[in-house]
Amino acid sequence: MNTTDERAGLPSAGNDPAALDSFLAKWRQRWPEWGVAEVFVPAPQRGSALAWAALLQELGDAAWGGRDPRPGEAKLAWWGEELQGWSRGARRHPLGIALQRQSADWAALAAALPTLQASRERPRDHAEAFAALEPFAAAVADVEQRLFIGAGDDDAEGSRDAVVAALLQSRFFHEGDAHVPLAIVARAGEGTPLAIWAEQLRQRWPQAPARTVPRRLWTALAHARLGHAEPARALKPWRSLAIAWRSARARPRN
Asked: Angle formed by the axes of helices 46-64 and 156-170, to 10°?
């Protein structure tokens, strides 16, 4: 492991399939529903979808995890270098085994990472929470378009909003309520801020289906979790199956 990798606490075993499997398993542990939902993803895309979801989890955990933001800042800086390397055909991280050769704008994703880090700050309200993630979500939506559909026109706004919503739900995996808007925290006596924010997100969830099947599935599962008293808790298999079936059949706007 080189010095940069050590500082960020990240592996450099870019050609180790076992290391890749460990990152995929980490994502599956957080989202066991995928064992049911992934059957609705076209078979040739399932490997890329799983690796891509694991990458987004790594980036989100770096941006929002822990009480001290500095380790996460170092990890995102490392990831910025790594994604730039993917655009040139190089890789160090095991997730690159599944993703680096895909036709995606990895450099643009790297350029959007500072906005992901900035989203760690508590937003003032619902609108600011969404707006803070829009630049990063736009880069994510572009990668997903290329991974799962190919080059061409896309409903950029609808896909971006779906990504933002799912990212906001994923912050419930992290300790504390630093992601809850200040406007909600200030409403003392009206309930637990986390519960109020979860319900607001659920009620104001974007309605337009995302363009890609994997994103529709991820967004629908994230929305369903918000209905739990614990928004990070996994869904029952039977419910996951019903949600995935409906989401896979949904048709985005042309």
From this structure: 60
Nearest alpha carbon to residue 2 among 93, 107, 114 = 93
Torsion of CA 207, 108, 11, 173, to 10 degrees: -20
Measured between alpha carbons, how far is 197 from 200 in angstroms, rounded to an integer? 5
Q: What is the mean pLDDT of each run of 10 residues along the chain (254 residues)?
A: 49 73 97 97 97 98 95 97 96 96 96 97 96 97 93 69 97 94 84 92 93 96 95 95 94 66
Of residues 81, 145, 149, 67, the one with CA closest to residue 110: 81
* CB atoms closer than 10 angstroms to residue 3: 7
From residue 139, alpha-carbon distances to 65, 135, 159, 199 in Å are 21, 7, 10, 27
Positive or negative CA dihedral for 126, 242, 145, 95?
positive
AA letter at 198: A
* 3-249 classified as CATH 1.10.10.10: no
CB 222, CB 170: distance < 8 Å:
yes
Per-residue burial over 211-224, b if 16 or more Cβ lie within 10 Å, else e, is bbbbbbbbbbbbbb
